């Protein structure tokens, strides 16, 4: 099947998932939407995030994708079920894959979760983890300052290290053996997060397990790409295309073309 996989996020975070899908499924064409004009989603009310997610899905449906990947934990937590009920193609989120990856890794049955305010408030990871392992202990912490740093490309700056150290101070010394990066932006900061948490804590990103879920669904539905011609991916963003392109090219290690999308003023809240 030659239709694309559509991936969306509030900004560059979903590229961490896109990169893993590209690696595990190199024949699949990706269309990616980063809503950089309205990032961050984390502090916004759930209704607003739901509204934005529907808008982006409508935008992407013009390209007739075969699957939608909501590569944003905040949007997965509040909007995935509505989107699934509305669109006639498979919709994959990032929370259940992240929870599965943590369950596979933890030996102590104590898992930490960091994410945006919206994701942590929704308790979606606690529900997903306990659905699989009811007695698991979960320690959570919202880190609202991380996403703006990533959107500015500040992955290793001194300011970033300080913000990460301050934000994670409560979790240091907690008895967890793995920490879910419950926001797709956070793998951009994994060196800094890893050095703050120490080697005894494994960092879990949902990217790998999400790509595996995408691959499994496409295989079982007979929807895998069959063309031997390497796909040309498409990228859209609603904010500054230059910053998006700079971050995306360095993360993906390839040259890309970014098409700016201008929301009507009434769409920008
Ligand atoms: N990358 C998104 C997430 O996984 C959104 C972050 C934000 O915009 O606050 O939650």
Strand and helix layout:
Blueprint: E1 5-9, H1 15-24, E2 30-34, H2 46-61, E3 67-70, H3 73-86, E4 91-92, H4 95-105, E5 110-115, H5 117-122, H6 124-132, E6 137-142, H7 146-151, H8 158-168, E7 178-182, H9 190-197, E8 202-204, H10 207-220, E9 234-237, H11 241-252, E10 258-260
Parallel strand pairs: 1-2, 1-3, 2-9, 3-4, 5-6, 5-7, 7-8, 9-10
Helix pairs in contact: 1-10, 2-3, 4-6, 4-10, 8-9
Residues 9-11, 13, 39-42, 72-74, 116, 119, 147, 183-185 line the site of D-glutamic acid.
- Nearest-integer average pLDDT: 96
- Give the count of helical stretches: 11
Approximately what portion of the residues adopt beta-strand conformation?
15-25%
Rg value = 18 Å
Structural class, please? alpha/beta
Q: For the largest beta sheet, what order do the strands appear in spatially?
A: 4-3-1-2-9-10
Order of helices and strands: EHEHEHEHEHHEHHEHEHEHE
Describe this structure in words.
- The protein is α/β, with parallel strands linked by helices and 269 residues long.
- 43% of the residues lie in helices and 16% in strands.
- It is built from eleven helices and ten strands.
- The chain has helices at residues 15-24, 46-61, 73-86, 95-105, 117-122, 124-132, 146-151, 158-168, 190-197, 207-220, 241-252; strands at 5-9, 30-34, 67-70, 91-92, 110-115, 137-142, 178-182, 202-204, 234-237, 258-260.
- A six-stranded parallel beta sheet has the order 4-3-1-2-9-10, sandwiched between helices. Strands 6-5-7-8 form a four-stranded parallel beta sheet, with helices on both faces.
- Helix 1 (15-24) crosses helix 10, helix 4 (95-105) crosses helix 6 (124-132) and helix 4 (95-105) packs across helix 10 (207-220).
- It is globular.
- The mean pLDDT is 96.
- D-glutamic acid (DGL) binds at residues 9-11, 13, 39-42, 72-74, 116, 119, 147, 183-185.
